[in-house]
Specification:
By secondary structure, this protein is of the alpha/beta class. It is 31% helix and 21% strand. It is built from eight helices and twelve strands. The strands form four sheets. Strands 8-5-4-9-10-11 form a six-stranded parallel β-sheet, with helices on both faces. Strands 1-2 form a two-stranded antiparallel ribbon. A two-stranded parallel ribbon has the order 3-12. The radius of gyration is 18 Å and the shape is globular. It starts with 6 loop residues before the first strand and ends with a strand. The model has no long low-confidence stretch (mean pLDDT 95). Bound molecules: dicarbonimidic diamide (C5J). Residues 29, 34, 77, 137, 162-163, 166-167 line the site of dicarbonimidic diamide.
Length: 234
Amino acid sequence: MEVRLASISAQPYDYELPEVSQVALVVIDMQRDFLEPGGFGDALGNDVTRLQAIVPTLKRLLDGFRTLQLPIIHTLECHQPDLSDCPPSKIKRGRSRLTIGAEGPMGRILVKGEPGNGIIAELAPLPGEFVIHKPGKGAFYNTELATILQQHSITHLFITGVTTEVCVQTTMREANDRGYECLMVEDCTESYFPEFKQATLAMVRAQGGIVGWTATADQVLKGLEQWKPSTVLV
Ligand code: C5J
């Protein structure tokens, strides 16, 4: 008997959902440091207000995953207070007025535990959701992400957050190389540079989905609502 798997309408072609519950939502770096004035993004000279446009859609997607009781992984880009996990090259890069570790209006820039380093209130993680502190752009480098995914038998990742061409794309490429089936959610990721976002989406989909798939939040939610996994693993 042919088993027809549920799928999500996506680019460059439909994204097949697994037969068992092996999916997770990954929310990259929705932190005050990137979205609010006075943080790291602002110090680098960016218009941080651009990133706030995705917050309501990302909240809707988060709520959808919460309703379906699917795993959610939040990441934060941050460094230890003594900056021992921050290469000097990263501190120097950008030549910004406020470098990593400097005291800014929301506390020390990109330092773990500082007010400006937290996730914005609207998207705050709930108890039971995973929170990964990452010193790099990619979420696999020097973190427990790979272990969490293995322990929970997760194979399919829905990737969201900021910024599209930096931490989101780096994480998706790292995951793709590790064999994960990755879908970037188009209207749940944003960049300070609109053309970089569009270029990233195009790069992901090119060559038959060389890095994975893209779809909108509505397409993802519609696919998940119709999906009846035979086994729930987490
Ligand atoms: C950056 C990030 N842009 N979260 N970090 O430095 O994309």
